[in-house]
Specification:
The protein is α+β, with helices and mostly antiparallel strands. About 20% of the residues lie in helices and about 35% in strands. The strands form two sheets. It has a 17-stranded mixed sheet that branches. The longest helix is centred in the C-terminal third of the chain and has 15 residues. The relative contact order is 0.19.
């Protein structure tokens, strides 16, 4: 019986069991979409990424939460590229182009001054849409009050590849009080009922960071909270330049995961090229462990579901 290997890498940290865990599947020959979904459900991480051939890029990635497929995932992309370098599959390349359902994603890799491999991922062009729902219902779903919201800034849906609701919070202490009622989200987010909620603030635990956040997942995804979120950090950088301090370029460090004991950091760079914002995120990753699953087990889950 053929065995499928799933590697566990943590993104946005060089310390195992911090940052954001990603499932990495490199050998995907003959895996169906349903099998990929079943693997992601079995593994249970916020996302599992699958390495596939591409006719238009160096390779293709598909991303699955335990509940459904997503178009793009920042931390799983960082983890996958790190893993492919570590396994000497693309270690001869400093730049690669990845095909995703969100479009083509340029990637650069380099080592920092202490020798850590850093992966820089270009995000999709930022988009924002107004939130037209009830702020009272929104804050109740996070176990907060309306007074916790920073009303000087807008609550908006934002995307640099994956949509989320960006919620500005006044004080850092509020993040410890957050207890999300994820099942309420679709009724509150009526314009985009399947998106996540991403509260953030400008107070941070670390003096080296510029923004702090938590990321509460859609109930359709099969998880409650994502420890350190790449694409949401990218759109936070675009939000910063759009609504907080408009300027031509900005480098930010976003921290996340402290409330889960999973501290990680994402470097976000926003620059304007031809008067259009270009957003990149940079981070490292670390190997943690691996598991093997009989393909028959995954097929057995399919048969059971059918």
């Amino acid at each position: 019986m053929k065995k499928i290997t799933i590697y566990h890498y943590d993104a946005f940290s060089h310390i195992p069991n911090r940052g954001n865990p990603a499932g990495i599947v490199i050998t995907t020959a003959n895996l169906s979409e349903t099998e990929m979904q079943n693997i992601a459900t079995y593994v249970g991480y916020s996302e599992t990424a699958f390495f596939l051939p591409s006719k238009v890029a160096d390779f293709k990635l598909r991303y699955f939460t335990p509940g459904h497929e997503v178009d793009l995932c920042g931390h799983a992309t960082i983890a996958m590229v790190y893993a492919l370098h570590a396994k000497k599959i693309i270690d001869h390349k400093k730049e690669v182009l990845i095909e995703t359902k969100a479009g083509l994603v340029p990637i650069k890799v380099h080592r920092n001054r202490i020798g850590q491999l850093q992966v820089t991922m270009q995000q999709r062009p930022p988009k924002f849409k107004p939130f037209r729902g009830s702020i009272k219902s929104l804050t109740k779903s996070l176990d907060l009050t309306e007074n916790d919201i920073d009303s000087s800034l807008p609550i908006v849906y934002g995307s640099t590849g994956t949509w989320t609701l960006l919620v500005p919070i006044k004080r850092l202490e509020a993040f410890k009080r957050m207890k999300p009622k994820n099942t309420h989200f679709p009724f509150i987010l009526q314009d985009m009922p399947k998106v996540s909620i991403h509260p953030f603030c400008l107070e941070t635990y670390s003096h080296d960071c510029n923004m702090h956040a938590r990321h509460f997942s859609s109930p359709y995804s099969g998880i409650k909270e994502d420890p350190v979120t790449g694409t949401a950090s990218g759109v936070m950088g675009a939000y910063y330049l759009t609504y907080i301090h408009p300027r031509k370029s900005k480098k930010l460090v976003v921290e996340q995961g402290q409330e889960m004991g999973k501290r990680g950091e994402v470097v976000v760079q926003v620059q304007h090229q031809d008067e259009k914002p270009v957003v990149t995120i940079t981070g490292t990753a670390v190997y943690v462990n691996q598991m093997e699953i009989d393909q028959g087990l995954i097929q057995g889950q399919i048969q059971k579901q059918n």
